[in-house]
Inverse folding.
């Protein structure tokens, strides 16, 4: 963040001899390369370097760190290496407004739990598993019976977003307490999967959590799960919910996606058709067809 509170991001490389500028985390008033002490302002401009006055016709104004496009989306910072990419509000229409309505104090949230989940599968296997609830009632009893009414679950494309919606479970069956009067959306579950590897998920009670898939290689991915709280939310409820989620839904999904990855390597596997119900709903895989279409678009350029 610059002195005028502007958020900037740069490639982590010195413009002199390509050494990495920084490592780890922290704060600094300037960026100093450890190789030859070339020093940059937080705005990216070169400030100084040893003996630069000896360089003939040296133009310090022409040296600047290479900037990365960064976008503040509901308080979360997204970097994009394509300077020509369309803004997130174009790629993911209405998501900013919907998230802000489901979590009115989203800009005041702080992280309370962070879980890293290694999975032995290709990232697309994990994303596809997340992007349908055809398997939920059979494989996720806590989620399907103690959080949502699975029979009301639906997923619809919204630009390059998959919007998950459903009602919360009856209050006497909920696995954690919620206050339906807290917000007009407190009794709903909604998830916004942002192609290709990020999802905002709001559990009943306006509880925000996130998914971020980070591929390791073609057979391994790490799913990063974040849980957030506002000043007026009970942190212990969120911590317990994160623990419940890790021990039930997450663990159940690990077994599923790793089995799928093994099956994909079998010479006996001959892909069957997707279940595409024209009425959509929980027993339809139309969302998977949409994901696969986006993937083909990306590969074809």
């Amino acid at each position: 963040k610059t002195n005028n509170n502007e958020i900037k991001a740069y490639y982590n490389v010195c413009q002199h001899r390509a050494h990495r500028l920084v490592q780890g985390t922290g704060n600094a008033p300037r960026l100093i390369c450890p190789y030859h002490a070339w020093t940059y302002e937080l705005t990216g401009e070169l400030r100084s370097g040893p003996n630069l006055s000896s360089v003939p016709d040296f133009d310090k104004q022409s040296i600047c760190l290479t900037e990365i496009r960064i976008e503040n989306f509901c308080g979360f910072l997204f970097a994009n290496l394509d300077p020509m990419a369309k803004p997130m509000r174009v790629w993911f229409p209405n998501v900013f407004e919907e998230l802000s309505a489901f979590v009115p104090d989203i800009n005041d949230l702080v992280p309370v739990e962070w879980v890293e989940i290694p999975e032995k599968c290709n990232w697309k296997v994990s994303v596809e598993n997340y992007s349908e609830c055809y398997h939920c009632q059979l494989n996720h009893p806590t989620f399907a019976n103690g959080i949502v009414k699975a029979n009301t679950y639906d997923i619809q494309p919204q630009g390059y977003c998959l919007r998950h919606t459903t009602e919360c479970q009856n209050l006497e069956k909920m696995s954690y307490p919620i206050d339906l009067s807290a917000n007009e959306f407190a009794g709903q579950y909604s998830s916004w999967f942002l192609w290709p590897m990020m999802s905002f998920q709001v559990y009943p009670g306006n509880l925000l959590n996130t998914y971020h898939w980070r591929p390791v290689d073609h057979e391994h991915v790490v799913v990063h799960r974040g849980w957030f709280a506002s000043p007026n939310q009970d942190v212990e409820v969120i911590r317990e919910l994160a623990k419940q989620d890790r021990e039930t839904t997450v663990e159940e999904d690990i077994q599923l996606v790793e089995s799928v990855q093994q099956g994909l390597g079998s010479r006996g596997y001959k892909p069957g058709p997707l279940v595409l119900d024209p009425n959509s709903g929980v027993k339809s895989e139309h969302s998977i067809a949409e994901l696969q279409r986006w993937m083909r678009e990306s590969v074809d350029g």
User: Anything to note?
Assistant: Helices lie at 88-91, 95-102, 123-130, 136-139, 141-146, 235-264, 286-300.
